[in-house]
Amino acid sequence: MASRLEQWLARLDAARDGEASQRLTLCQEALAKAPGAAVARAAGFLRQQEYPGWEHLAVDAFERLGVDGAKVDPGCLGRLALADALLEVEWPQSEPWWSGLQTVQWEAVWGGRVDAAAALRGRCALGFVRCGDPRGAVALAALLADAEPECRQGAVRALREAPELWALPLLAHRAVADVESMDLQLDLFQGLLERDNDSAFQLVATALRLGRPETREAAAIALGEQGGAPGALLLWALLDEAVLPHARRAAWLGLALSRCAEGRQALLAQLKDAPRALRREAAEALEGLRDKELEALLER
Fold first, then answer.
1. Rounded to two decimals, what is the model's pTM?
2. 146 and 154 in contact (C-beta within 8 Å)?
3. 145 φ, ψ to 5°?
4. What is d(CA 144, CA 122) in angstroms, rounded to the nearest whole number?
5. Cα–Cα–Cα angle for 217, 129, 106, nearest 5°?
6. Chain centre distance of CA 50
7. 62 near 83, Cβ under 8 Å?
8. DSSP-derived 3-state class of residue 258
9. Distance (Å, whole) CA 29 – CA 7
10. Coil, helix or strand for 107?
């Protein structure tokens, strides 16, 4: 016998090619009664039809699914889909963002349990910042210390859109801690450089020389992509001063990804006439970058 979720999904699939009015009625019913995975599909239908007022139905469904989330919305599939939909239209009210930030949903897995709401908290952080709720600074400070990486990443991405007065110190504090993965450290550095602040720039410059290998690489990429000419000059200085090839790897990468003439264009010009040993070092440092222009130059 088909489960309740399977029945809902079958009904929604059957209505896909039916009359618009019947499909609309079924989608409204699904948001009010169906399990999370079916709600996600129904919300997609409503958005495609541009049904007026669907946002209010989505908020109500979000709150309903949170009452007994592990049972009615395992994996938070429905609420994640609703949050994404509401982010697209920049839903201006603090609910459901606030309740999503407070959600912890433990679910059993083989050998233990996991918090299935980690991604949801991270997603709701962005909506909470965009709606301008005055509790944003404290909420994101707490999320930066969350045990789940997805939450911290969501907080960092939200802080990149937050008011500088409180976003900049929070980003700087987490960056100085130097405890995150390379991807998240890169988000932190990019968020700092986006603020066009001299102190933030110096913080990233310090990380380029003194951080862990993963941190130095993240700082180099951020300085290449968003540091402009001053960032390129720092990368050239590192390339000139570092003695060992592994210490220069970050500089090669940052210059290859640079978005200014002092970075990438200068690198291409230098590699044209560089000694074979230097070209080999650059090729090894940039392996996996999948840059056809650089690859062709280094293979000559």
1. 0.87
2. no
3. -100, 10
4. 10
5. 80
6. 27
7. yes
8. coil
9. 13
10. strand
